[in-house]
Specification:
Low-confidence stretches: 1-5, 8-33
Number of strands: 7
Bound molecules: coenzyme A
Radius of gyration: 21 Å
Helix content: 40-55%
Distance between the termini: 60 Å
Strand order of the largest sheet: 1-2-3-4-5-7-6
């Protein structure tokens, strides 16, 4: 579900200005700048993205380097091809899931693409990407699990993952969920049969969605507040600098 006004874009570098950084360091002293850190054992909030998030999705995918784009799309997608992919996303038919950092930058996203063939209506394909600064913390795994639950609740019976055989993390994720992996030279295909939805699986997903929305609202509020304080700090700095200049 989309929410109006939730597209406050992070800066291109994903970093706050100088004043913002000072304030963030006060608040998040332990955290390395530019690195997304999830507390060990905790889960990320996963939200559904909509058409208003196209810019954010493009920014995420454009931040992937050539090798990552090769792993994600099966070829080294140019910036133009990435834009073409993003423009062509069908939010009515497919589901796009995302994980944001505290600056509301999209650090990980998954695309659950449903079959367009009526005879294969119960099939879907999973694709995912995590920014390099956020890898190895289970985000890929969590997006996969969330996509599985979602696909199951949508009546999907078989999920497919197309990955290069060299893509150890992706194949690990698929195997861990019980997928059958068939290797065909440089490429591998993973198939996973999903059980039918139950009341539990549907309620579980509903609760997850509500929690993720509440978490995102809090982060947005916090970001707006820190931006506001950063603005105040800039003004104070300007006033102080002005005083120095005018003093004899
Ligand atoms: C594949 C990708 C999404 C994995 O994301 P991630 O958040 O780093 O993955 P996770 O942290 O959830 O790790 C999943 C598993 O892979 C393992 N893993 C992570 N990085 C690894 C690496 N470089 N080499 C070997 N194993 C690795 C993890 O240990 C974990 O296994 P475990 O549960 O047995 O410990 C990420 O590497 C990526 O975006 N790659 C580029 C795009 C891509 O390949 N997409 C997939 C094709 S659609």
């Amino acid at each position: 579900m989309e929410h109006p006004g939730d597209e406050s874009e992070p800066s291109v570098s994903g970093k706050a200005g100088k004043a913002g950084n000072d304030l963030e360091q006060l608040q998040f002293g332990q955290q390395q700048s530019g690195r997304f850190s999830l507390l060990p054992g905790s889960s990320a909030s996963i939200r559904e993205l909509g058409p208003r998030h196209r810019k954010r999705i493009a920014r995420h995918l454009l931040a992937l380097d050539g090798h990552d784009r090769y792993l994600r799309f099966g070829y080294i997608a140019s910036d133009e091809q990435v834009h073409h992919y993003v423009d062509g996303l069908n939010f009515e038919r497919d589901d796009i899931l995302g994980i944001h950092d505290r600056r509301l930058q999209l650090v990980a996203m998954a695309h659950l693409a449903y079959s367009v063939d009526r005879n294969l209506a119960a099939c879907a394909e999973f694709g995912v990407s995590v920014l390099s600064a956020a890898r190895g913390q289970g985000l890929g795994q969590q997006l996969f699990e969330r996509a599985l639950r979602h696909a199951r609740n949508q009546g999907v019976e078989q999920l497919f993952i197309h990955a290069l055989s060299e893509n150890t993390p992706m194949l690990k994720i698929a195997r861990k969920a019980g997928a059958r992996v068939e290797r065909d030279g440089a490429e591998s295909r993973a198939y996973l049969r999903l059980p039918p939805a139950t009341l539990d699986s549907q309620l579980g997903e509903l609760i997850e969605e509500k929690l993720a929305e509440a978490d995102y609202r809090l982060r947005r509020q916090a970001k707006q507040f820190w931006d506001f304080l950063a603005g105040l700090q800039e003004v104070r700095r300007g006033v102080r600098a002005g005083r120095h200049k005018s003093s004899p």
